[in-house]
Amino acid sequence: MLLAALIVLSGFAWTRVFESTETTEVATRCNIPTSSAQQSPAPVPAPTDGPVATPVGRMLPRDGLNDTAPIPPQDVGVRVLNSNGEVNQATLISQELTNLGFGKGGEPDNDPVYTAYNLNCHGQIRFGESGARAARTLSLIVPCAQLVRDQRGDATVSLALGSEFDGIKSTQEAKRILQKLQNWDAKHGQGGARQVSQAPRISDEMLSRARDVHC
């Protein structure tokens, strides 16, 4: 009897975990960009386990960079984009990222993709092939932003702020990881391109907890 009850409870717990993961995936999905001439935003792509090709780039699932190791925040050049029409928000978030130790990938600006300011989600972290590890680092403190791989040739990343963006979400675990990366960088006296090939080992469990937030 007791064993049967434990089996039922275990199954219920795993169902809740699955539903929570699925709900978060849906909550972080963004609409496809449209031009300012169109009256309404394009629909959100249907759920998928793989990347979705769109005009902004390939929209990845939330776990799309789980196998990618982060790098120290000072080696991450971030440019914040206004994709929701909120005045001065991009500038304020850019300064907050600087305060957290991130580098600057350009001055805050209006989004050249969602020109109608109709990014209807929390936001997007856009990056090219060379910036995957930088995007992984940024995703630790903006865990509700969608990952988008585009065609840029450098290692910079863009943080596009959507209509549901409600600020930087730095969990205690995320702060510990950033501090660990910063300390490692200071100890080894390296930075920039040399840092890309090396980084301290961060456990998968720690990385997962850093992004464990409600979106």
Automatic annotation (TrEMBL):
<feature type="domain" description="LytR/CpsA/Psr regulator C-terminal">
    <location>
        <begin position="75"/>
        <end position="165"/>
    </location>
</feature>
<protein>
    <recommendedName>
        <fullName>LytR/CpsA/Psr regulator C-terminal domain-containing protein</fullName>
    </recommendedName>
</protein>
<dbReference type="Pfam" id="PF13399">
    <property type="entry name" value="LytR_C"/>
</dbReference>
<dbReference type="InterPro" id="IPR027381">
    <property type="entry name" value="LytR/CpsA/Psr_C"/>
</dbReference>
